[in-house]
Design a protein that fits this description.
alpha+beta; three-stranded antiparallel sheet
Length: 183
């Protein structure tokens, strides 16, 4: 989607960045990369335009150096991303390619387990550690087949109960407080 700025396009891929900057010269489009912030995209586009004003050869030399710098930055980011990640209990979280089970996603407050069955994605629950999410996912896989939705509903109910109990809220006190607030 075009923005009000020339040579800057808003894109939907939030992983790479939100704004793509580019510049046109000698009948070609030169990509300047994707940026999360509009001001970053504007700054790099302005720098490229100032190099373009100095001449085609000057711009092409600057562009080659710019591409090399971006490659080094990307390489460094990949190295940082490859560092082992630790779970809240200190154990290492395997990379997606090394995971034993599919259907585990990282969230800000833990890990969500999901399973795809009968053309539908079911949420198994949110867990504080990767290992707990994997265990829940494996349990769900064992119960795939006839009666899976019913089993899952009961499993989710028990999981919610356990979460409430671990937070110090018993179901009796919940029911009592609900009755007190209603009456």
């Amino acid at each position: 989607m075009k923005t009000k700025y020339t040579c800057i396009t808003e894109i939907k891929d939030r992983e790479l960045g939100r704004y793509m900057a580019y510049v046109n010269l000698i009948g070609k489009t030169f990509s300047l990369g994707c940026y999360r912030d509009l001001s970053e995209a504007i700054a790099i586009r302005d720098e490229a335009n100032s190099m373009k004003e100095k001449g085609t050869d000057h711009f092409l030399a600057w562009y080659d150096a710019f591409k090399e710098k971006r490659k080094k930055e990307a390489s460094l980011l990949r190295k940082i991303a490859d560092l082992p990640r630790k779970d809240s209990d200190g154990s290492e979280i395997p990379e997606p390619a090394k995971r034993v089970v599919r259907g585990i996603s990282r969230r800000d407050n833990g890990f969500i387990a999901q399973i795809y069955y009968n053309r539908k994605t079911y949420s198994i629950g949110l867990y504080p550690t990767y290992q707990e999410a994997v265990q829940a996912r494996l349990q769900a896989e064992e119960h795939l087949g006839e009666g899976f939705p019913e089993w899952l509903a009961e499993f989710q109910r028990r999981h919610r109960e356990a979460v409430k109990l671990s937070a110090g809220l018993s179901t009796r006190s919940m029911k009592k407080s609900d009755a007190d607030s209603a009456g």
